[in-house]
Amino acid sequence: MNRAQSEKLFAEALKYIPGGVNSPVRAFRAVGGNPFFVNSAGGCKLRDVDGNELIDYVLTWGPAILGHAHPKIIAAVKAAADHGTSFGIPNPYEVTMARMICELVPGVQKVRMTNSGTEACMSAIRLARGFTRRDKIIKFDGCYHGHADSLLVRAGSGALTFGQPDSAGVPAAFTQHTIVLPYNDFEAVTAAFAANRDQIAGIIIEPVPGNAGLYLPRPGYLEFLREITASHGALLIFDEVMTGFRLASGGAQERFKITPDLSCFGKVIGGGLPVGAFGGRAEIMDYLAPLGPVYQAGTLSGNPLAMAAGIANLEALRATNAYDQLEKLGEQLAAGMRAAAKAAGVAVQFNSCGSMFCGYFTDSPVHNLADAMKSDRERFKKFFHGMLDGGVYLAPSQFESGFLSTAHTAADIEKTVQTAASVFRTL
Ligand code: KE4
């Protein structure tokens, strides 16, 4: 595949940007080679600067749930931009977005917008600590909640990909109140609460972790976390930056029927523009400035263009049978990939949940980070490049989830599975 223009651009990028990228996972360091540069995108396809067309399963890490350059999102952004790009004073879009989130998400009575998922998670943690007057937070290894200091501990996504789950530059004092436990381990949570009685402000968790690949909560696990936090006066925080408005219109909390105290969002609610949000019970959210003592702010929070794009995304999702479509596409992809791997005699654990998925090259089931780490990453690298050369772009790391959109068709999935079948045979 000709990538001459991408290589030229990457050489130039390396002169001015650390690693040539503005976010580490884009650098292809986990799979080798250099990233391609996108010229344009539409539907489920990317077109790189060398004219290669790719079926996209990264979808800018989740936001493009309706596919790229959706006409309703483009029109909404253009219309909003004609009136100005930012005001630093309330605008009507913020009210519409807040109302939509509160209407769609079971656990949210009030919501505050931010500019990224990192800000949303960082702020939710601060709010939980302020509301409970406790300092300790439980997170789970392999889960990624953005790059705020106290959460960069055994984190997933790019941190895990580069073997830096505990980043340099984070003083021990900043993480001393962060307790990291294995995901899906009931006893570990019980023991942590017993050993830190009345000190735990909350648990933050990706209800379906998508930053160490993808694995699912064991039956009863989320219900257990809901009960044990309530019984200890701690808050349950669902990080739905990835799962929100994707696994159901009300996110994982609707799909699994669990109501957390706080929820974090991002991605889909920005329609591809910079966004984050956190919300929950009004009595907790009202602890935020200007009402309460917990400070949180942002120059561009509730930016009219990001709000317009997110509202258009949510409206289009609500107006169609998008979630049925996404479920069917996810099932078709999972069945096809499992059959192709089996036929080629390649050990693959293909985990999926709705329109999120991950294939691990291992013969044992993957229920947590330790299982995911058993995956054969050399095989993953070969598979990734074989698929890329075949016109299919998967997440450039074993420790990332893939995504489907309503723009993917059964024919796209069939082509993907056929390409995988031929690549599996070369591994
Ligand atoms: P951002 O700060 O990147 O907007 O959101 C952080 C975040 C928080 N919580 C979850 C569950 C997330 O998945 C993310 C960000 N996701 C990664 C993809 N694994 C973003 C990709 C990147 O870092 O470039």
Give the total of beta strands.
14
Strands of the biggest beta sheet: in what spatial order?
4-10-9-8-7-5-6
CATH C-level of the largest domain = Alpha Beta
Oligomer: single chain
Question: CATH-wise, what's the superfamily of the largest domain?
Answer: Type I PLP-dependent aspartate aminotransferase-like (Major domain)
CATH architecture of the largest domain: 3-Layer(aba) Sandwich
- Return the structural class: alpha/beta
Helical fraction: 25-40%
Explain what the structure shows.
α12 packs parallel to α15. The chain folds into two domains: 4-69 and 321-424, Alpha-Beta Complex (Aspartate Aminotransferase, domain 1); 71-318, 3-Layer(aba) Sandwich (Aspartate Aminotransferase, domain 2), CATH 3.40.640. The protein is built from 15 helices and 14 strands. The protein has a seven-stranded mixed sheet, sandwiched between helices. The chain has a four-stranded mixed sheet with strand order 1-2-3-13. A three-stranded antiparallel sheet has the order 11-12-14, covered by helices on one side. The chain has helices at 4-16, 71-81, 92-104, 117-132, 157-161, 172-175, 186-195, 221-231, 251-255, 282-285, 304-319, 322-344, 369-372, 377-389, 410-424; strands spanning 38-42, 45-48, 53-56, 110-114, 136-140, 178-181, 200-205, 235-239, 262-266, 276-280, 349-353, 356-360, 392-393, 402-403. The longest helix is centred in the C-terminal third of the chain and has 23 residues, at 322-344. A hairpin with a 4-residue loop joins β2 (45-48) and β3 (53-56). Helix content is 38%, strand content 15%. The mean pLDDT is 96. It is globular and about 55 Å long. It has 427 residues and is of the alpha/beta class.
